[in-house]
Design brief:
The chain has 212 residues and is mainly α. The protein has one domain (3-199). Helix content is 70%, strand content 0%. It has ten helices and no strands. Helix 1 packs antiparallel against helix 4, helix 1 crosses helix 5 and helix 3 runs antiparallel to helix 4 (52-70). It is globular and about 45 Å long. The termini are far apart.
Length: 212
């Protein structure tokens, strides 16, 4: 493994480790969002505790870090054409993006207690294919409007990733189909407590725009 690859892998993880939810809550509101609401250092908890403005900022920043980390792949390639670069960087984008997601889940800058990774995962998908990301976002919004439950929307939109991948690529990018399985397993793991609450009928519904 080259030193450049090692540095970029570390950079992707560190980028994912930036706890924007904590930084925004402390910097703009003087509180640690992890001590309120669900205790989660993610955009959803910021929405619930601090309102739409702060939640949107955190959401966009978490998406941005996943997208930026994935796009570090371009630094390792100097192909003759953009088309060749796109073909050769999907695997690296996935690798760097997954490292950023792991950084978000287990951030070194926040005692390894982070969020659930959905926004950072979305950033990775945007870096791979914006149309694929649009399909997942549309599914998320639709399910959220119907259920008013972020966990349900997150899980279902992640499950739909594989279907959208097939519709766009067919079997041309099997690694994305395998990634889709990995993403579903990861989201089910990070939302395991939500699944228990859903089973017990105790999962909270989100109300955007209302500050606690």
């Amino acid at each position: 493994m080259s030193s450049d690859l090692i540095i970029l892998c570390l950079s992707a993880y560190l980028l994912g480790s930036i706890p924007f939810a904590v930084l925004v809550s402390k910097g703009f509101h003087g509180i640690d969002v992890r001590e309120h609401g669900s205790g989660n250092a993610g955009a959803t908890n910021v929405f619930r505790v601090l309102g739409v403005k702060s939640g949107t900022i955190v959401l966009l920043l978490d998406i941005f870090k996943g997208m930026t980390a994935a796009n570090l792949a371009w630094l390792l390639w100097e192909p003759e054409s953009i088309e060749l670069a796109a073909q050769n960087t999907i695997e690296l984008k996935l690798a760097f993006g997954i490292l950023a997601v792991l950084g978000h889940l287990y951030p070194v800058f926040a005692k390894f207690k982070g969020g659930k990774g959905i926004a950072t995962l979305l950033g990775l998908v945007i870096a791979i294919n914006p149309l694929l990301a649009l399909g997942c976002i549309s599914c998320f919004v639709l399910v959220l409007l119907l259920s008013r439950t972020v966990s349900i929307a997150s899980i279902i939109s992640t499950m739909m990733f594989g279907i959208f991948t097939y519709l766009i690529y067919g079997y041309g990018e099997p690694i994305l189909l395998f990634f889709g399985i990995f993403a579903v397993l990861l989201v089910l793991f990070t939302h395991r407590s939500n699944l228990v609450r859903l089973w017990n009928g105790e999962e909270k519904r989100i109300t955007l725009g209302k500050k606690k």
